[in-house]
Amino acid sequence: MKIKYELIKNNDKARHGILHTNYGSYETPMFMPVGTLANVKTLVPEELKEVNSAVILSNTYHLWLRPGEDIVQKAGGLHKFMNWDGPILTDSGGFQVFSLAKNKKKDITEEGVYFKSHIDGRNLLLTPEKSIEIQNKLDSDIAMSFDECPPASASHEYLKNSLERTLRWAKRGKEVHSNENQSLFGIVQGGPYEDLRKESAIETVKIGFDGYSIGGVANDGESKEDMYKAIDYSIPYLPEDKPRYLMGVGEPIDILEGVQRGIDMFDCVLPTRIARHGNAFTHSGKINLKNLKFREDFTPIEDTCDCYTCKNYTKAYIRHLLVANEQLAGRLLSIHNIRFLIKLTEDIRKSIDEDKFIEFKNNFIINYKKSSK
User: Fold this and answer.
1) pTM of the model
2) Of 91, 141, 147, 254, which residue is the catalytic one?
3) Could you confirm whether 297 is annotated as catalytic?
4) Could you confirm whether 241 is annotated as catalytic?
5) I want to staple 243 with a disulfide (CB 3.0 to 4.6 A). Which of 5, 71, 114, 319 is the partner?
């Protein structure tokens, strides 16, 4: 089946909904953990279930290079290959082409993007058709259109040409999309410019997709203000009966700002990435457990957290693991960080139901920013 979005309750623009998928129905707003190479780093599916993960992400570019989409297809598709019985979204590979290409050298043409593999330097070509073909074989529940990901510093003229190319690529991708059980999302681009975001959103909706994403908001060098502008300029032109996905965003405050503007879905590598460096989300801001002051702190990361890590381990123990370079530290912190963001979305949904979202958001931000830990 194609995914379906059902609105339960709205509090101004903030929306509490249900995303109906091939693998069950899940409430939004939601945070989606990223499993780039068909795994969320260091975690097994049972742990993802325990933190209430719903949709998880994998990446077309990476799986195309290793192990190859044909191997995943022979395994029975991505769900069986990675032993995940929940919904999966696959990125188109566009962002990775622009961010990981060896030496960042690439040639963008109407056909697609020529670039060198970041693994072995091979010459590669990724086109809209190829991206969709790979995703069809991966058999994810949600596939993404192939788009150009311009730098945050790009000019208005460049961004206009870029979004128009992305629209042409979106049409080509939709024409070859052949997996009847897979939904296809369109991507809105246009940088921080109101006229370009409006044009991109309107024209993308005309093509017709199962959901809509706002892209180009997690690029290096982009300000928070530009990110929020991009959302504000796009949302009014997206249909209310389709899910809205803000790509690559996972900072707690950014999730709150996105929800206030009408976003339903978020993803980011942030919770597992900062975990590997010893950082943990708390309601008083991020803390680094490598800090000496945690050496004799025999309390959990957060007393109120219901995750496995906080129920069983102390800051002192996790700090010991970090100092000793034990991989368990990153694993335990990943469990906590993912649960923190998922619990945040659960609390957001409750506040929307109670018509208290703005109050909840403001209180969260005050507490999150006040600590100097």
Assistant:
1) 0.96
2) 91
3) no
4) no
5) 5
